[in-house]
């Protein structure tokens, strides 16, 4: 970077597993990153983050600025606001309400680096002129204690695209700029013409394996080995997602794509290297999980289109019950403190 370049200013909302890794990449790329921390605030303010990784080595680093509340930066203008919280549609305050505190300029791009489908609409409605960049993440990382992130594989890909796909040229330019920064910072990033295709490809994996792992406490590989009915169940969920994509006009969500996604779990079963999906990790740790963004949005969309999705609807009903039970446990727990 030359001396006269102004570093890109980024606000990170959700400095957890993914947020902390992206923070590292953005700082490596020369960005000035303000991080809003919640439960790890005190730790990060004092010690920064510790990233244990193969890709970047074991490193310690601090955000350019660590804050506790968005109101602390309400008068600043950012080039990018990177949202790496879990996606909880319908939560209070809503994401648009949170963003309203910090969006001062219509050129500030909002990057949604989150799983699920149909997570962009409420943000786009609230900020119709700002670039909305929708991101699909392939990066297995977990915050094992406040400020400590374990990232043991080298996989690192951010697929990025504007929402909607036919956004104005300056929105596309913002997507290219952000992808560039992620690559400069040592990661991989791709800008796609239609990010929904990528989002739905990822949904094939998430809709099948997150519920199965969460409800059985199995890894994907172990589940496949558990009975002669296991493979059919997981595969039929993928077929339901394919049918839904077809019904709502998302191109490219084919049996071939599903087969290639499915083969990952089959290989893990064979090698004994099954993955514990994030929803399972959340349930183990008594945390809220993304049942609405990943499963609820899909089954409701199916119902609106008159599509029967018996497997996925069953998963949704069971997981939603588990979710409500978990919420009760959390409330009870905090009432006791
Ligand atoms: N981790 C992975 O391997 C992975 C891989 C692919 C995709 N993803 C997706 O990436 C997204 C982020 O996942 P993650 O694993 O990074 O989740 P995470 O580890 O739970 O991190 C989320 C962070 O956001 C913080 N947060 C939540 N609400 C906030 C608020 N209102 N204000 C400030 N901070 C807030 C959380 O704070 P608290 O600690 O206080 O809750 C936490 O630090 C999800 O959509 C996930 O599905 C994750
Ligand atoms: C990083 O730390 C872990 C343990 O925390 C250790 O197993 C690993 O060898 C370290 N890696 C490097 C490159 O130092
Ligand atoms: C918005 O940001 C752009 C680019 O940083 C800047 O040129 C413009 O002056 C800003 N507008 C306002 C109203 O601050």
From TrEMBL:
The keyword Oxidoreductase belongs to this UniProt entry's keyword annotation: yes
Entry superkingdom: Eukaryota
Reaction equation(s) it catalyzes: (R)-pantoate + NADP(+) = 2-dehydropantoate + NADPH + H(+)
EC number: 1.1.1.169
Classification via Pfam families: ApbA, ApbA_C
One of the GO biological process terms: pantothenate biosynthetic process
Domain annotation Ketopantoate reductase N-terminal: ranges: 10-161
Signal peptide: none
Presence of the UniProt keyword Transcription regulation in the record: no
NCBIfam families: apbA_panE
Family according to the record: Belongs to the ketopantoate reductase family.
Task of the protein: Catalyzes the NADPH-dependent reduction of ketopantoate into pantoic acid.
Name of protein: 2-dehydropantoate 2-reductase
